[in-house]
Amino acid sequence: MNLTLKIWRQPSPDDPGKMVKYHVKDVSPDMSFLEMLDVLNEGLILAGDDPVAFDHDCREGICGMCGMVINGVPHGEQKATTTCQLHMRHFEDGAVVTIEPWRAAPFPVIKDLVVDRSSFDRIIQAGGFVSVPAGAAPDAHAVPVPKDDADDAFDAATCIGCGACVAACPNGSASLFTAAKITHLGSLPQGQPERASRAKAMVERMDLEGFGGCTNTGECTAVCPKGISLDAIARMNADFLRASR
Amino acid sequence: MTAIIERGAATAPVAQSEPPRRRPGFFGSSNGQKAVMAVTGAVLVLFLAGHMVGNLKTFAGAEAFNGYAAWLREVGYPLLPKRGLLTLVEVVLLAAIVLHIWSAVALARRARAARPVKYAARRKSQAGGYVVHVMRWGGLTVALFVAYHLLDLTFGVANPAGGAASPYQRMVEGFAPGRWYVTVFYAVAVVMVGLHLRHGLWSAFQTLGLARGRRGLQGAAGLLSAVLVLGFLSVPFAIMIGAVK
Amino acid sequence: MNYREGEPIRDTKAPDGPIEERWEKRKFAARLVNPANKRKLSVIVVGTGLAGGSAAATLGELGYQVTSFCYQDSPRRAHSIAAQGGINAAKNYRGDGDSVYRLFYDTVKGGDFRARESNVYRLAQVSVNIIDQAVAQGVPFAREYGGLLDTRSFGGAQVSRTFYARGQTGQQLLLGAYQALERQIAAGTVTMHARHEMLELIVSDGRARGVVVRDMVTGEIESHLADAVVLATGGYGNVFFLSTNAKGCNTSAIWRAHRKGALFANPCYTQIHPTCIPVSGEYQSKLTLMSESLRNDGRVWVPLEAGDARPPAAIPEDERDYYLERIYPAFGNLVPRDIASRAAKNVCDGGRGVGPGGLGVYLDFADASTRLGRDAVEEKYGNLFEMYERITGEDPYAQPMRIYPAVHYTMGGLWVDYDLQSSIPGLFVVGEANFSDHGANRLGASALMQGLADGYFVLPTTIGDYLAGARDFGPVDEVSVAEAEIAVRDRIQRLLAVDGDRTADSFHRELGKLMWDYCGMERTEASLTKALARIPELRAEFWRNVKVSGTNEELNQALERAGRVADFFDLAELMCLDALHRTESCGGHFRAESQDADGEALRDDENFAYVAAWEHTPEGPVLHREDLEYAYVKMSQRSYK
């Protein structure tokens, strides 16, 4: 199949960017979206042009490094799928596909589709951990954890930190990302001692980074490749309010 | 060359994560602003519920309705001064409205700052995409409506019966069949309020961290909104079709 | 390519005495650094996977000044995150007869008697601490209704000792280490440099004292100095181009260290994982693993007749060959990875493979669905089935999965002693990057165990012993820093200057195909000789004809790739040489010349019970042998029949 791509090209953080049109031919439906871009890039390199820069690594939907807004939807319209797991069989021959980077002030564009997501790391630094030095841990069976709590924690912990939630949110909020970590650790007995301070510190950090506030639109959870639930945000809000009392 | 030849020295500049900024405090944080919106919204919803029930007195006739209006001014007398409770309610409502709008503006500004560059592709909502527009533009519409509504039925300035007429008279003449356009305008505004509440009610629970089981709460929010809308619309429509004179 | 024999080497750090006391003895003998002095000592850690992330976090916690690097945009992306199945630990929570000794025994046997007993025993001992540590960090392992941890059995083991977090154990463990690391970054003990790639090791006065890195955003070449350097840069499976590794995984860090004098051990030991999604076309950029746990309930088969092109449902039961169950009745579909992989290759070579190109076998869940019900299958494997459908467009509930082996893990790596120190003083190597504890074949769920054992528990103790002597290190020689930087700049300039008409990826594909065909699941003298003749030609063409667009002073992914491919060429040559010299079959290394009457791998313990540690010299590789002794586990031919 043949496609027309409209891709955001921006040589460096300070340059203005623009949408540039490319045509790719003979795309196999079994290709992944990134493999389709690989083919485009091979052609661009040989033509002496600058290949389209995009982040990617594991290409199996777990590292969270890839991500682009495809036709206005982060990771494309396929549900519960990262860009690397999106396959071309979901596109029609002759389609026009727009490809843009995540758009948010705390995710500045580095080049083309590559953005700087270190703000996410700083949110984790603010409190997304349990303070336990190596070697001091009690036996793993010392504290039984009810299966439901363990499952809740796990569901939230599957967040891959890709940033699609921010890209999709009309407010540019990182609430789903932040809430996922707060919910993960707050659901477990091991996370209780720091629960209140964690919620407060992480929310404050999220604000400082320049993310927007949550207005419960649900766009984040709809595009989340791991389907993190809005319930996580409710828990974050509860923990935050408790910590602010 | 960037190396500093000295034992034990990390040569790259140690990234200070951030210059220490003033902590934003509860009302400066996105979550705090959301909580303000939720709490003030809840106050306004309680008022609306009372208001709606009071309106239904119309069906009991002019005497009952006017009596109810008078009672509102005298409740608690002589323990409280005349209009005491009513004034208190008005002050609380005014404060709620001001704070509700303040938090809405603060969050909207935060959202705008979080996405300085817009997407080129038209955003395709993956959730209930109307929500944002209903909340922000809808809120503005509702605010304009409230202003007109006060001039019409509370102060009587915009009412054909004038400020000196009895409340019942103002109501019946205001929605008289010949003034069907006023009723239609009311209907549109009240439906707008309903849509606002449909998201806002659930949203308040979510923001206050009380949401557990999203679907149930969203259903309840929808139901309550519908009840309010129907309750509010029953009176003007009854008047318009001449059922109440 | 010729090589010379050098002096034999020995691990001098493992204490003598009863095996169960050796680690205690070593810990006690290790010198300590007092807390005030730790603050003055610095360590560089390259890589932020399970081994590197946990090491940097733990060293930071101990009070050292740590500088950490990763090529990804965040330390959380390291490829440990993709490990699905689980992590072994000798907890014996099931009371099914597991013990530290049994895990030790299974690992030595599973590694086909090519790993050190002392190291493996320590690994089994430490395994129990890892689970405790991870749980305390909030890793959400699977639990039973009683609130206790669930375990399952895994390929090659007959006890239930594998702890797991659905199909995302690696993710959860890595996030635990990542969070510990971020905590130290916030505390100021660790300075993190993401999007930085190590391109050279700085050796001064015989000690590893720093690294040269490229800032992948600006192209700036920076030198970072420290008292010790830890490499945790993972394996080199991407030499095959197609593997289950992440696209960015590369050998450059360890290969640069090798060029600076670190011995490279057993480069030919490659693990081929039996359950991956087959290649679908020429454009394929990577292979995706389907967790080994699928073999617990899936049955592997191919048509009995070669060239049977009927759809699977149309092939009646008696015209199917459940070959693993037929050949290995005792272990059936759960035989170790190397055996399952080679069996798949054999049936495909015999023309009985299925799917495009005949490179695939069926993994069938029809029986499991009947026996357990579709719901139970979905509960256990739902996420894997979804992943399969997303990639192939086929529904595994309706028709059997197609799987084929793919390169997954490399047991070889930089040679280290019991202290995890390489042959360059001050250069420590942890995780998959070292030649590790897995011998010639790694058991399932053991990689996570080794990475975390190294990072949380072993390295922090042993590196202290080295750093206790830091007072005598002296200043870093400026010339060595300048030389390292110049070497990096020169190489980049050379790559940019070629301006040929073939992309680095195109060379990489060809190299990978060559390695897969000639140095893959089955190796022969002829194939390896052919590879050794072809690789230098291809490398020469690369340096003559590669096209790298852009400049150094920008984010330039074409340049990054070209640099990595250049190093893969050199590594590929050493792999083939190692594979050629080891004329026995063992673990992941199968030499067709060395098999028994049934076609099973035949080890040659008399001549090859050693670690092949290769030294780089301008005159060519030099082989140093480290003899392996087995005082506890009796050497025997593995049998899973």
TrEMBL record, chain A:
The keyword Transferase does not apply. Keywords: Iron, Iron-sulfur, Metal-binding. Coiled coil: none annotated. Gene3D superfamilies: 3.10.20.30, Alpha-helical ferredoxin. InterPro entries: 2Fe-2S_ferredoxin-like_sf, 2Fe2S_fd_BS, 4Fe4S_Fe-S-bd, 4Fe4S_Fe_S_CS, Beta-grasp_dom_sf, Helical_ferredxn, SDH/FRD_Iron-Sulfur, Succ_DH/fum_Rdtase_N. GO terms for biological process: aerobic respiration; respiratory electron transport chain. Residues 150-179 form the 4Fe-4S ferredoxin-type domain. It comes from the Bacteria. Its cofactor is [3Fe-4S] cluster; [2Fe-2S] cluster. One of its GO terms (molecular function) is electron transfer activity. PANTHER family: SUCCINATE DEHYDROGENASE, SUCCINATE DEHYDROGENASE IRON-SULFUR PROTEIN. Belongs to the succinate dehydrogenase/fumarate reductase iron-sulfur protein family. This is Succinate dehydrogenase. The gene is sdhB_2.
UniProtKB/TrEMBL annotation, chain B:
Keywords: Membrane, Transmembrane, Transmembrane helix. The chain crosses the membrane at residues 35-53, 85-108, 129-151, 180-198, 219-244. GO terms for cellular component: membrane. Residues 1-26 are annotated as: Disordered. CDD domains: SQR_TypeB_2_TM (cd03498). SUPFAM superfamilies: Fumarate reductase respiratory complex transmembrane subunits. NCBIfam families: sdhC_b558_fam (TIGR02046). This is Succinate dehydrogenase.
From TrEMBL, chain C:
The keyword rRNA-binding does not apply. It is found in: Cell membrane. GO terms for cellular component: plasma membrane. The keyword Membrane applies. Its EC number is 1.3.5.1. Residues 43-448 form the FAD-dependent oxidoreductase 2 FAD-binding domain. It is a peripheral membrane protein. Keywords: Cell membrane, Electron transport, FAD, Flavoprotein, Membrane, Oxidoreductase, Transport. Its main location: membrane. GO terms for molecular function: electron transfer activity; flavin adenine dinucleotide binding; steroid dehydrogenase activity, acting on the CH-CH group of donors; succinate dehydrogenase (quinone) activity. Its cofactor is FAD. It comes from the Bacteria. Gene3D superfamilies: FAD/NAD(P)-binding domain, Fumarate reductase/succinate dehydrogenase flavoprotein-like, C-terminal domain, Succinate dehydrogenase/fumarate reductase flavoprotein, catalytic domain. Residues 508-640 form the Fumarate reductase/succinate dehydrogenase flavoprotein-like C-terminal domain. Signal peptide: none annotated. One of its GO terms (biological process) is anaerobic respiration. The active site is at 337 (proton acceptor). It catalyses: a quinone + succinate = fumarate + a quinol. Belongs to the FAD-dependent oxidoreductase 2 family. FRD/SDH subfamily. This is succinate dehydrogenase. It comes from Acrocarpospora corrugata. The lineage of its organism: Bacteria, Bacillati, Actinomycetota, Actinomycetes, Streptosporangiales. The gene is sdhA_2.
